Amino acid sequence: MKNLINLRHLEIDLLNDLTYMPGGLGELTQLQTLPLFLVGNESDSGEGSWHKKRMGGGLSELKFLNNLRGQLVIKGLSNAGRSGGGREANKEAILDGKQYLESLELHWRGSEESEEEMEAIVSVMQSLQPHSNLKDLRVGCYRGVRFPNWMMMNDGLDLLLPNLVTIIIWDCERCQVLPPFGQLPSLKFLLLQTLRAVENMKEDYPLSAKPFFPSLKTLSISNMPSSSSNGWGKRPDVAAQQPPPSYPYLEHLCLSNITAELCLQLICASSSLKSLKISEMKDELSLPEEMSSHSNLHTLEIRGCPYLYERCHNGEDWPKISHIPNILIRKQ
Q1: What tens digit of pLDDT does each residue of 26-48 get?
Q2: Burial class of residue 17, CB neighbours in 10 A (0-12, 13-18, 19+)
Q3: Residue 243: partners with Cβ closer than 8 Å, 6 or more residues away
Q4: I want to staple 229 with a disulfide (CB 3.0 to 4.6 A). Which of 37, 108, 265, 270 is the partner?
């Protein structure tokens, strides 16, 4: 394939059963369309050059494909942490020159890793810093114990990813601290799913004068049962008489299996809510008094919260929500 130097579009169905990429992709520098890239397992297992070639190249194949645009899904990143090609790629930036790329999905496979391999995974993620033009970032089954430095910047994430509109992160069960996503000026949609080890969002105190989630419209958090409300808008260094703006445009909030502390913090954070869904809450939770002031809230759905069900179903919390036009409350 490396001889097709003028090839611009390589269409790959994201749902197919492809197991490895053709060799020589890294030389197709005119390529503009590559929806899917599978990281090959170039392990030094002594199985011969044919086997290594058949399994495809490592992340370094992507380095010079700077004309790629639209969507790119990278799967099999677990191989990059184990393979010789992956270790080499870890030392260099792979994606930061791809200014035309709008959507990026990074996907690992769930497995058990040694401590050394977990560090290699973080190193691989560090090499995948995208260009500032990126609009959509998705990370699935990331096995690192922490997010990379470029995501954890305490001052400057808003400059690094100023155009990011959508973030979806799921099944990253080892990370304990979320990046300071509240800095991102264009972020409108944030979905966090099954991040069981997360304890808080990194607090960006030096940026406390800046708006917090200034553009966010939809926030969905599920299966994050250990997180406190730290970093989600609580900033103890800010004077009480000058609270920072928080979630000024948040309209849709969906919360499932999180702590009562975080749930209450988010419900109270924005007065612009239009829909609120709460489900599978393990803690005893009662709705805050602020619910009665949510004049824009037109839909409330509560499922699988037995304690809250009793309080809302003509109980103590009913007066707080009786003004909402559409209410669905189910015990299970």
Answers
A1: 888 999 999 999 987 654 444 44
A2: exposed
A3: none
A4: 265
Q: Helix or strand or coil: residue 178? A: strand
> Residue 12's closest CA among 53, 70, 61, 60?
70
pLDDT tens digits, residue range 165-182? 999 999 998 999 999 999
Residue type, 278: I
Other beta carbons within 10 Å of 77: 25
Q: Do 81 and 113 meet the contact criterion of CB atoms below 8 Å apart? A: yes
User: What is the distance between the alpha carbons of residues 168 and 190, in angstroms, rounded to a whole number?
Assistant: 6
Amino acid identity of residue 233, one-letter, is G
Q: Which amino acid is at 157?
A: L
Query: What are the Cα distances from residue 309, in Å, to 66, 274, 284, 321?
Result: 54, 21, 10, 12
The answer to whether the pTM exceeds 0.85 is yes
